[in-house]
Design goal:
There is one protein chain. The chain is α/β, with parallel strands linked by helices. The chain has 2 domains: about 25-110, Leucine Dehydrogenase, chain A, domain 1 (Rossmann fold, 3-Layer(aba) Sandwich); about 135-260, Rossmann fold, CATH 3.40.50. It has helices at about 10-25, 40-55, 70-85, 105-110, 120-130, 135-150, 170-175, 190-195, 240-245, 260-280; strands spanning about 30-35, 60-65, 90-95, 155-160, 180-185, 200-205, 220-225, 230, 235, 250. The strands form 3 sheets. A 5-stranded parallel sheet has the order 5-4-6-7-10. Strands 2-1-3 form a 3-stranded parallel sheet, with helices on both faces. Helix 1 (about 10-25) runs parallel beside helix 10 (about 260-280) and helix 6 packs across helix 7. The structure holds the ligand Nc1nc2c(c(=O)[nH]1)N[C@@H](CN(C=O)c1ccc(C(=O)N[C@@H](CCC(=O)O)C(=O)O)cc1)CN2. Ligand LMY7XDAE binds near residues 45 and 264.
Length: about 280
């Protein structure tokens, strides 16, 4: 591992190996179903990678492909059938969905016990109130990366840039549960740069290419870049200006190869947790 660079691929590979070892000891095979609607190319890559990783870990995994023209009612009927299927422990509906389908309605229809994305309001509420539940994969992966980088979280000043239901809010809740002092900042925050400079842990999840500049980083901070932004030339960059930020950060995640691989590893972790909770 390059000093200061948090190798998400390596941490994810270790986690996937631990999960595979755990699955091998179970008296049942955890089942995962990923539902993809339409043909968004990036979603195609992510869904394929999820399926491969799940099968490699010994899960019973399959993708349900629905056409671009699928209606909300058809998707809800698919979710209902998966809710009722005893062989299925985890259900994930890949986002984004086509415009004719209201994502919130579909996510609310997933059985919270099978909601391996952790997006259902029941699981979000459990996380917010410190109860056990399924936790969204990307923020969960970030907590694993902080542990791997040996970044102390308890008592640390953590700043989360972004307030989405999928990353920003659950990220803040997890950091708070780990006793960090947490600030959420966003596009309407006054003087974002000064707020970020206060961070000992900075998590950028805003979806704007290289928005976080090198001089927003305090010397010795741990910087976690959740952004995956595709440039017109086909390259990928995060939300942080990596080259500049790494000069100041004690530890930083690259893009690609940082948080992304952890999202998939944590999906497997959630599926196994859901299976154990459901099947005893
Ligand atoms: N239902 C969900 N939909 C989406 C989620 C999610 O967690 N649940 N997150 C993203 C997409 N995503 C997983 O679904 C995801 C994105 C990126 C990666 C990843 O490993 N990225 C690589 C780069 C890959 C590339 O070249 O494009 C990396 O960062 O190294 C994994 C999963 C939106 N939808």
């Amino acid at each position: 591992m390059t000093p200061g660079i948090i190798d998400g691929k390596a941490v994810a590979a270790e986690l996937r190996a631990r999960i595979a070892a755990r699955v091998a000891t179970l008296p049942f095979t955890p089942g995962l179903r990923v539902v993809r609607v339409g043909h968004d190319p990036a979603s195609g890559v992510y869904v394929r990678n999820k399926d491969r990783a799940a099968q490699a870990a010994g899960l019973d995994s399959a993708t349900i492909q629905m056409p671009d023209t699928a209606t909300e009612a058809e998707l809800l009927a698919t979710v209902a059938a998966l809710n009722d299927d005893p062989a299925v422990d985890g259900i994930l509906v890949q986002l984004p969905l086509p415009p004719q389908i209201e994502a919130a309605k579909v996510l609310a229809a997933i059985d919270p016990a099978k909601d391996v994305d952790g997006f259902h309001a029941m699981n979000a509420g459990r996380l917010a109130t410190g109860q056990k539940g399924l936790v969204p994969c990307t923020p969960k992966g970030v907590m694993h990366l902080l542990a791997a980088a040996r970044t102390p979280v308890a008592g640390a000043r953590a700043v989360v840039l972004g307030r989405s239901n999928i990353v920003g809010k659950p990220m803040a809740a997890l950091l708070l549960a780990a006793d960090a002092t947490v600030t959420i900042v966003h596009s309407r925050t006054r003087d974002l740069a000064s707020e970020c400079r206060r961070a000992e842990i900075l998590v950028a999840a805003v979806g704007r290419p290289e928005m976080v500049k090198g001089d927003w980083i305090t010397e010795g901070a741990t910087v976690i870049d959740v952004g995956i932004n595709r440039l017109p030339n086909g390259g990928l960059v995060g939300d942080v200006d990596f080259a500049a930020a790494r000069q100041r950060a004690a530890a930083i995640t690259p893009v690609p190869g940082g948080v992304g691989p952890m999202t998939i590893a944590c999906l497997l972790e959630n599926t196994v947790e859901a299976a154990i909770a459901r099947r005893g």
